[in-house]
Amino acid sequence: MQILAQLIVSGIAVGMIYGVIAFGYQLTFATSKTLNFGQGEALMLGSLVGLTVVAFTGYWLMLPVVLAFGLLQGAVVERLGVRQAIKTKSESGWIMATIALGIIFKNLAENIWGRDAMKFPSPLPEAPLSFAGVNVLPMEIVIVIGAIGMMLLVELFNRRSIFGKAVVATANDREAAGLMGINTSLVITFSYALSSMTAAFAGVLVAPVTLTGASMGSALGLKAFAVAIIGGLSSGFGVVVGGLILGITETLTGYYLSTGYKDVPGLVLLLLVLSFKPSGLFGRASIKKV
Amino acid sequence: MRFATTLLALAASTALAATAVAQQPIKVGLSGPFTGGSASMGVSMRDGVKLAVGEINKAGGVLGRQIVLVERDDEARNELGVQIAQELINKEQVAATLGYINTGVSLASQRFYEEAEIPVLNNVATGTAIATQFKAPEYKYNYIFRTSANDAIQSGMIAEEAVARHGFKKPAILADSTNYGQLGREDLEKALAARGVKPVAEEKFNIGDTDMTSQLLRAKQAGADVILTYAIGPELAQIANGMAKLGWKLPMIGSWTLSMATFIDNAGPNGDGALMPETFIQAPTTPKRTAFIAAYQAAYKVDRIPSPVSAAQGYDSVYLLAAAITQAKSTDGAKIRAALENLQTKVEGVVTTYDHPFTATDHEAITANIPVFGVVKAGRVVVAHAEDLAGDKALRVKAKN
Fold first, then answer.
1. What is the ipTM metric for this complex?
2. What is the count of structural domains for chain A?
3. How far apart, in whole angstroms, are the C-alpha atoms of residue B64 and residue B71?
4. Of B207, B214, B245, the CB nearest to A255
5. d(CA A256, CA A265)
6. How many Å apart are CA B261 and CA B311, to the nearest integer?
7. B400 contact partners, CB below 8 Å, separation of at least 6
8. Which of A2, A43, B56, B318 is most buried, by CB atoms within 10 Å?
9. Do A258 and B177 touch, CB atoms closer than 8 A?
10. What is the CB neighbour count within 10 angstroms for residue B293?
11. Residue A271 belongs to some domain of the structure
12. How far is it, in rounded angstroms, from Cα A284 to Cα B94?
């Protein structure tokens, strides 16, 4: 029982990491029906910029710098990689462009920070807390709270603020929103900026647990992509649940089946979701009119 | 008259060309990952090699010719290693090549040197198959030599340390899913079986995995009393950190990658006490080692050598090659190979003193008696058992062939 609880707690911590990255996929998909395949790299850049800044400012003051950097980086990705594809209504141009930008960012990071994994100073004590025999790192609790908090803030922003309403309007019907005088291309740029900002924030949030380095984004970005598909790309709530499902399945399979097959059930689940509910467990099925 | 001048000029230019050949530098290839996950090993190896080449050139070079290194970054990628091998052989026409950190790159690239009859001195890669890939009778001559402790030696030492020295009976093996991890795990299983011990748990993980809870809990449930590892720095650090998180600390004994800076720095205090076999530990235990450490620190302005083992083995590989070229009186690949297989001069290296290190059938310079155990202590690797290097045991040499 205690072991099961420990596995679930660790699974939640890992799943929240996946979920918070997947949340970024969902943000841009909602407005532009495109994804930033360099989401993992946005996370990595945020984390490495954070590592550089944290030496001067400490952990908490570093956060606004990283958030600003994330906004900027996302806007750059949209301007360079996605805008042209949307303009020409290209079905796949943005896929190649965001992947290419991701590779460029990774190479850039390798040249600036090297390719070794580095330790990110933890703002909290690294000794585990014990609840009835179940151990959890303070930083893992912060990841869960931080991820949920960030997602709530973004949702609140979308529902309450006038800018947010423009985002939602664009997400619902881009043509109509454009006719109502909303600058939809600006909204799309903004959604990319927001998406990279959440990734950068996720980067500094998870870095004390996962280690930092130019290659940290690839594995996490891919897992998060699976999560986004399982949970449903159109649902912010879905990706969180998707993350938890994948994280917990991984630790449980690793323990009860074999650590060699840890990743298999998650991928099987992915295939099942794609065959039976392609829009994801919590996604809305949309009919594309041509 | 005019004809005579032309003839004279021709003769003069031929003579010039002849002297130019005599003074042409000797090109030696250097292939290793200078960027990437194994860069700390690659860069230390390269720096050790450059240090030795600098010393040799300063003392007049080999056969009166300077050594010029042709450095190439293989990024630990097999296909890039192959490209580099072809470039070094065909375009640069090197006399020999030093290097290789990654077993995969080494195995993929060496075939071209074997075919071109150019010797390779593997100075870091540890895969057991490397030095025997082209062994007789399938191949007439083997052009591949090695100056590092292979995985069969390392796993044997790990098993001995765990079972004989510490008396552990229930080891759990944690290895990554790469070739390195899985081949090492096989070697380790064999070495344990030879001592009548069967691991109670064998767990796997992927490069980039951040959570080791399942692996560690399985080892814990199986009643493990020691963790044996075959993996690389970052994931090894996650194992040490994962144990701290679960509040369950077992001794860690593993392959030499436990001395990687990415393990030591990322595990911090959780990594203290990890034991690994090392051919060289940054400690002034012989005059040669003292001089080497001082020279390295002065040349590269560091206190801690990022990977002391790679630096020392790289340094020694240059002196072995230089001795072979001197003895062969030629840069012809076949002659260098023959000289390496029957090296008459004793080469005093950092790791050991090489007295007939290779024969036609044995291309491993390091034997099981040479490495000693290092232990991580406050961010550095120090000698684990002082008695291993006490007195005249400081210099451990290969038994005569």
1. 0.83
2. 1
3. 22
4. B214
5. 12
6. 14
7. B355, B356
8. A43
9. no
10. 19
11. no
12. 63
Q: Indicate the average pLDDT of chain B.
A: 90
Examine the domain organization and report whether B339 and B308 are in the same domain: yes
Q: Are A218 and A33 in contact (CB under 8 A)?
A: no
| Secondary structure letter of residue B170 according to DSSP | -
* Nearest CB to B218 within list A14, A206, A255: A255
From chain B, the residues in CB contact with A260 under 8 A are 177, 204
Instruction: Note the pLDDT of residue B105.
Output: 92
Inter-chain CB proximity B234 and A117 less than 8 Å: yes
Q: What is the CATH number of the domain that holds B17?
A: 3.40.50.2300
- Partners of residue B77 in chain A, C-beta under 8 Å: none
Does the beta carbon of B215 lie under 8 angstroms from any beta carbon of chain A? yes
Q: For A213, phi and psi rounded to 5 degrees?
A: 175, 165
pTM: 0.85
Within 8 A of B39 by CB-CB distance, chain A residues are: 114-116
Domain region containing B349 = 13-149+283-366
Please provide residue B71's backbone torsions phi and psi, each rounded to the nearest 5 degrees.
-90, 135
Residue at B401 is within a domain: no
Q: C-alpha angle with apex A189: A187 to A192, nearest 5 degrees?
A: 110
Condensed to tens digits (0 to 9), the pLDDT of residues A193-233 reads 999 999 999 999 888 888 888 888 888 888 888 898 888 88
Same domain for B289 and B350: yes
Residues counted in chain B: 401
Q: How many residues does chain A have?
A: 290
| Helix extents (H) in B127-252 | 151-159, 179-194, 213-221, 233-246
- Asked whether B29 and B92 are in contact (CB, 8 A), the reply is yes
Q: Which residues of A touch B221 (CB under 8 A)?
A: 3
Considering only CB atoms, A219 lies closest to which of B35, B208, B218, namely B208
